């Protein structure tokens, strides 16, 4: 699944560690999501959505 | 661009705390394994009451270690839980398949020595560490 996490993070001048702290996950998990190696669960996707104040569809894109 | 304060850090603190707790319980458990292993030889000889007591102590500390492990897993984030779950699944499979095969090798006298539980424990530990390293690399 593609996502705009890296772009949104960069816009806010946050490091991966900053984002990891905000989401209560490890930096490795943020990195794996950004690189598309790990797809977050729905609760985590909602958390990301709330943090960036954007709908999930604007952050994550289904590749089908 | 506004830089928000996103460093709550509470989850990271909890994870560090649970990792330290698990390390302490694991060290204690290893120490309580050594007591019934070396104690009878070095100190009290064949005293069944003391042997039973130290083995019960080992089981008690072992339960504490299992509890600390569960708490530690619960503090991990969802991807790390997945990584750990897969590594544990592989090591459980290796333990069952490898343990039964090892036992059969002994039962059929294919190996010239008795099957020791220590080898199985080593096999579980090594397979867990290898699968954990592979899984962590996969998501890197």
Q: What portion of residues of chain B is helical?
A: over 70%
Query: Level of helix content of chain A?
Result: 55-70%
* Number of beta-strand segments of chain A: 2
Q: Counting H and I runs of at least 4 residues, what is the number of helices of chain B?
A: 4
- Total strands of chain B: the figure is 0
Shape of chain B: flat
Strand content of chain B: under 5%
Regions with little confidence, pLDDT below 50 for 5+ residues of chain B: 1-6
Can you give the mean pLDDT of chain B? 90
Instruction: Give, in spatial order, the strands making up the sheet with the most strands of chain A.
Output: 1-2
Look at the helices and sheets of chain A and give the structural class: mainly alpha
What is the CA-based Rg of chain A, rounded? 11 Å
How many helices of chain A? The count is: 5
Over all CA atoms, what is the radius of gyration of chain B?
Answer: 20 Å
Q: Helices and strands of chain B, in N-to-C order?
A: HHHH
- Give a quick account of the main beta sheet of chain B: strands, pairing sense, barrel closure: none
Structural class of chain B: mainly alpha
């Amino acid at each position: 699944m593609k996502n705009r996490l890296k772009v949104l993070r960069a816009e806010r001048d946050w490091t991966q560690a900053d984002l990891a702290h905000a989401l209560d996950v490890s930096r490795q998990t943020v990195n794996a999501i950004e690189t598309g190696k790990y797809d977050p669960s729905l609760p985590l996707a909602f958390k990301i959505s709330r943090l960036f104040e954007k709908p999930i569809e604007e952050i994550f894109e289904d590749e089908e | 661009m506004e830089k928000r304060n996103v460093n709550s850090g509470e989850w990271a603190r909890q994870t560090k705390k649970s990792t330290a707790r698990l390390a302490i319980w694991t060290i204690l458990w290893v120490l309580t394994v050594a007591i019934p292993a070396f104690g009878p030889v070095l100190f009290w000889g064949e005293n069944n009451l003391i042997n039973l007591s130290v083995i019960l102590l080992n089981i008690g500390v072992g339960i504490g270690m299992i509890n600390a492990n569960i708490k530690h897993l619960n503090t991990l984030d969802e991807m790390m839980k997945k990584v750990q779950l897969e590594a544990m699944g592989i090591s459980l499979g290796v333990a069952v398949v490898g343990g039964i095969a090892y036992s059969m090798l002994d039962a059929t006298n294919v190996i010239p020595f008795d099957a020791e539980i220590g080898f199985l424990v080593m096999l579980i530990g090594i397979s867990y560490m290898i699968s954990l390293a592979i899984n962590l690399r996969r998501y890197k």
